[in-house]
Design a protein that fits this description.
Largest sheet: 6 strands, mixed
Number of strands: 11
Structural class: alpha/beta
Distance between the termini: 95 Å
Keywords: Membrane, Signal, Transmembrane, Transmembrane helix
Helix content: 25-40%
Radius of gyration: 30 Å
Shape: elongated
Length: about 240
């Protein structure tokens, strides 16, 4: 009985801890970076700096205005950084009013860096066919299209946010304020092109399956078992040794 009570208390405490942690994550205070550079498909921005305050709870968000985005296209966003276990990143795709973006956007003329950082976070999204809204397909991140008005669809601009936060303090945290990362946006393919490729792959698999079942398999079976209808006559030879 005491074991059951202890187990029940443990589960209740664990559930409350998980709920509290999730609430803290959602309610984490945040601050935006000053700049809002543009990011187009096929473009890579290297050594992007994100300055963190000396507080563990504050989340820093860097916004990128996505340009040359097309409808009915699959995209992938890569985020890579040179490993610090005390920093966590998340990708968030949203839309902002064009007027607001025009006021906040500033060109970032920082030169490209020389470091090659391995991919860490990826997010796959698909632009819808009728309007420039996005669907989350997979990876690390989330999509929030916000309020949508079909009549004023052109008045909104897609914006990709890189959200970083500390999950632990390194040694001498005052020396670790700036963390750098690379970000890249690529086109995976168009929806109609991917659909045709998938269709041709399915047709190829079906044709190969019919060929194997109808021709290859019977030939292999007959070869292994021997053809009983056309057997060769038996010939015996006697060999005499003198």
């Amino acid at each position: 009985m005491s074991i059951s009570c202890s187990l029940a208390v443990f589960l209740v405490v664990y559930a409350l801890g998980c709920w509290a942690d999730g609430t803290q994550t959602r309610d984490r205070p945040f601050m935006y970076a000053d700049s809002m550079p543009a990011l187009a498909p096929g473009e890579v921005r290297r050594n992007e700096a994100m300055r963190f305050p000396l507080t563990l709870e504050t989340e820093v968000r860097q916004r990128y205005v996505l340009t040359n985005m097309q409808r009915d296209v699959y995209y992938i966003a890569h985020l890579s950084y040179l490993g610090s276990p005390s920093i966590m990143y998340n990708l968030h795709l949203t839309r902002l009013p064009r007027a607001t973006v025009g006021e906040l956007q500033q060109k970032n003329q920082a030169g490209p860096g020389q470091r090659h950082l391995s991919d860490v976070n990826r997010m796959y999204v698909k632009a819808r066919k009728d309007v420039l809204l996005f669907d989350f397909l997979g990876g690390e991140g989330e999509v929030d299209n916000g309020d949508h008005d079909p009549a004023n669809d052109d008045s909104f601009v897609p914006v990709l946010e890189v959200r970083g936060y500390r999950n632990g303090f390194p040694h001498e945290p005052e020396k670790w304020k700036d963390f750098r990362y690379n970000i890249r946006l690529d086109v995976v393919g168009r929806a109609d092109g991917l659909t045709m490729a998938i269709m041709w792959n399915v047709i190829t698999v079906i044709v190969m399956g019919v060929f194997v079942i109808g021709f290859v398999a019977p030939w292999v079976i007959s070869t292994a078992a021997g053809d009983t209808t056309n057997q060769r006559s038996r010939r015996d030879f006697l060999i005499f040794f003198w």
